[in-house]
Specification:
Elements (H helix, E strand, L loop, with lengths): L1 H9 L5 H4 L5 H22 L8 H10 L7 H15 L7 H18 L7 H17 L2 H13 L4 H22 L17 H32 L7 H15 L8 H8 L5 H20 L7 H22 L7 H17 L2 H12 L5 H18 L6 H6 L7 H7 L3 H4 L6 E3 L4 H9 L5 E5 L5 E6 H5 L13 H4 L13 H9 L5 E5 L5 E6 H18 L3 E3 L2 E3 L4 E4 L3 E7 L9 H4 L1 H5 L2 E6 L21 E6 L1 H12 L13
Parallel strand pairs: 1-2
Antiparallel strand pairs: 2-3, 4-5, 6-7, 8-9, 9-11, 10-11
Helix pairs in contact: 1-5, 3-5, 3-11, 5-6, 6-7, 7-8, 7-9, 8-9, 8-16, 10-13, 10-14, 10-15, 10-17, 11-13, 12-14, 13-14, 14-15, 15-16, 15-17, 16-17
Length: about 650
């Protein structure tokens, strides 16, 4: 698709570097802008997830959405990236391939209705296959998915991801052949003293990676601040890029040819010095303005430039102990990638696979580790995670992410304690005598929230004789300064609770109507249950030398227990969504055993019809479990319900 778009744009699928000088200047100038016009409707109207370099969206899907990615992402990302790169966008193809592969993995998982706990693994499989196929590097593809996308090397995901990476490489080699993504020169470490130079190369690449992250973030925020319609921004970015391409043709598209020249030592230091800031700015502008493409290859590109400059300088100062500049450019590619993405293992393995030369191990290890350390000291976030942090998502703060996955509407009480603003004092007193809630909300005739009355406001007037007949609710209310809406996340609600000492917050619609009430206790109870559920699913208990996934009853922190309950016959065919265990009984179903005790535990699917042979692993406080079991037995007094024996 990239070749097709490039052929339509400039009339060739070969290296644009040698074709662009022969084209009329106005054609070169307008092509990136035209690409921006075509891309804009796709990324702003059809699929906003397809904007940018794609990897942050995949990380977010794994961390917050259980691996669910909309199928349209694969199609729109393919079209948008092909249009961006084929018309000159200064971005790479590997980032889009990661997102496309991840979207396909998620799609297959959803179509096959695999357990939700395994869906993120399929997303990682798609990402691994994409990188492996693009670079003919199966080991690097697998470790990219584990290190960057999944964020761990847990064994349940390791096997499938490695298998996917291997199969993707086999398919890729059957079409492209078994050769590396770049023309890699032979490598030799001429002297152990060269390692000192590679140490400085690591520092330079670390600083360069931080600069790249800064420029991309700066332009991204700057373009968002421009007060024009989003549909025009990619075209405007394309116009600026077109001017730059007129003077520096090396910026057009993915630019493998330029990298090959740098690795062969065929580019002068003056041209490298010019390319470094211009390439950094061109890639950042393409992405910030709304283009679709990756930062994986641009990081390698910038690393080759940085390594080439260091190599040329070292060759002039220490000619007797230094290798050709191409060797430093090769190591610089890995070091710069490690610094910008904070993934040293992936970068190290990628270059090792590309070269297949054991002699490069020591320089790679040194430069990648140093560049990553420098980058993390100066910028805590990588080029992938910074975009998420700007949106308030920190993938390392699991607890906050959990609270962002739930909204007020999911746990609020629809029946709020309310009084009319014209309610008499006697009615107010009767209300507080009949409830244990110390706050009551006052609404007008249109059900709009006017304010709230606390029990303390009423106590002071009980001894005032003669005032009762004169006071109504409107006279006692205080304005509710802190409110929430049904669509607000619980993470936002915790911030709102911190602004007041109240136990309850009113839930209002956009026009101010009171639609429910949210209690701080309910929010914290859900938080504890979700933390407990996630911790529990990774637990493997040992008793008397025998491994058990779940005990009959396990005491856990926060006064919670785990109990396994056989599905009663009168719930056959119902789903967890219908049972509403969380809202009705304050219980959480953390696992499902289909067919009883002989099969392993699975994450429960809320839409899975339960059968009498199934068992649920429930978490909650003992009093809630007892209430749940008692209420189950009431409709059928002769039915039995109990726990599964160990």
């Amino acid at each position: 698709m990239i070749n097709l778009v490039q052929w339509l744009a400039i009339g060739t699928t070969s290296a644009p570097l040698y074709t662009l000088p022969s084209l009329p200047w106005y054609r070169v100038f307008w092509v990136p802008a035209l690409g921006g016009l075509l891309v804009a409707p796709l990324v702003f109207l059809v699929s906003r997830e397809s904007q940018g370099h794609g990897v942050p969206q995949v990380i977010e899907a794994v961390a917050l959405k259980g691996g669910k990615i909309h199928p349209r992402v694969a199609v729109v990302k393919s079209l948008a990236s092909a249009l961006t790169i084929g018309t000159g966008g200064s971005v790479g193809r590997e980032g889009p391939i990661v997102q496309i592969g991840a979207a396909l993995g998620s799609l297959f998982g959803q179509l096959l209705r695999i357990p939700p706990s395994r869906l993120p693994t399929l997303v990682g499989c798609g990402a691994a296959g994409g990188i492996a196929a693009a670079f003919n590097a199966p080991i690097a593809g697998a470790f990219f998915a584990l290190e960057v996308i999944m964020g761990n090397f847990a064994m349940p995901a390791f096997g499938p991801i490695v298998l996917s990476s291997v199969l993707a490489t086999v398919v890729s080699r059957s079409y492209f052949g078994n050769h590396p993504g770049f023309v890699v020169p032979g490598y030799a470490l001429l002297s152990e003293w060269e390692l000192i130079i590679y140490l400085f190369l690591g520092i330079a690449c670390g600083l360069g990676g931080v600069a790249f992250i800064f420029v991309l973030d700066l332009l991204d925020r700057g373009v968002k601040a421009v007060k024009i319609n989003n549909l025009w921004k990619p075209a405007l970015g394309g116009l600026i890029l077109g001017v730059a391409i007129l003077f520096v043709p090396d910026l057009y598209g993915v630019r493998y040819a330029t990298m090959d020249e740098i690795l062969r030592g065929g580019v002068s230091w003056t041209w490298l010095l010019l390319l470094l800031p211009i390439k950094m700015a061109a890639t950042s502008l393409t992405l910030a303005s709304g283009g679709s493409g990756g930062v994986f290859l641009p990081s390698l590109y910038l690393g080759s430039i940085t390594g080439g400059l260091i190599g040329i300088g070292a060759g002039v100062l220490l000619p007797s102990i230094t290798a050709p500049s191409g060797a430093y450019a090769l190591v610089g590619m890995a070091a710069f990638l490690a610094a910008s993405t904070h993934s040293p293992i992936t970068a190290f393995l990628l270059l090792f696979e590309l070269t297949g030369d054991y002699h490069i191990i020591l320089p790679l290890m040194l430069s990648c580790s140093v560049s990553t350390l420098v980058a993390k000291m100066l910028q805590e976030e990588s080029i992938y995670t910074l975009q998420l942090v700007r949106r308030g998502i920190d993938v390392r703060r699991r607890e906050e992410n959990i609270m962002r996955a739930f909204t007020v509407g999911q746990i609020m009480q629809a029946e709020a304690p309310v009084l009319s603003e014209s309610a008499a004092f006697a009615e107010i007193v009767r209300h507080f005598l009949a409830t244990t809630v110390s706050t009551c909300f006052v609404i007008n005739e249109h059900k709009r929230l006017c304010g709230e009355i606390s029990l303390h406001d009423v106590k002071g007037l009980l001894q005032e004789e003669g005032l009762g007949a004169l006071i109504i609710a409107r006279d006692l209310l205080h304005t509710s300064h802190v409110t929430v809406r049904p669509e607000d996340t619980l993470a936002h609600c915790l911030d709102r609770f911190s602004q007041t000492e109240q136990e309850f917050l009113p839930v209002t619609t956009a026009d101010g109507q009171l639609c429910g009430v949210l209690s701080h206790r309910a929010v914290m109870a859900l938080y504890n249950r979700e933390i407990l559920r996630q911790e529990y699913l990774g637990l493997n208990l040992h008793t008397d030398g025998v491994d058990h996934s779940v005990h009959e009853e396990v005491r856990l922190p926060h006064q919670y227990v785990v109990q396994v309950v056989q599905i009663p016959s009168w719930h056959t065919g119902k789903t967890l969504r219908v049972l509403q265990l969380r809202t009705q009984f304050h219980l959480t179903a953390v696992a499902l055993r289909r067919g009883g005790t002989t099969r392993g535990d699975e994450l429960p699917d809320p839409d899975y019809p339960l059968s009498p042979q199934d068992a649920l692993v429930l978490v909650g406080q003992p009093i809630d479990l007892a209430r749940f079991l008692t209420e189950q037995e009431e409709p059928h007094p002769h039915a039995s319900s109990g726990t599964i024996p160990q």
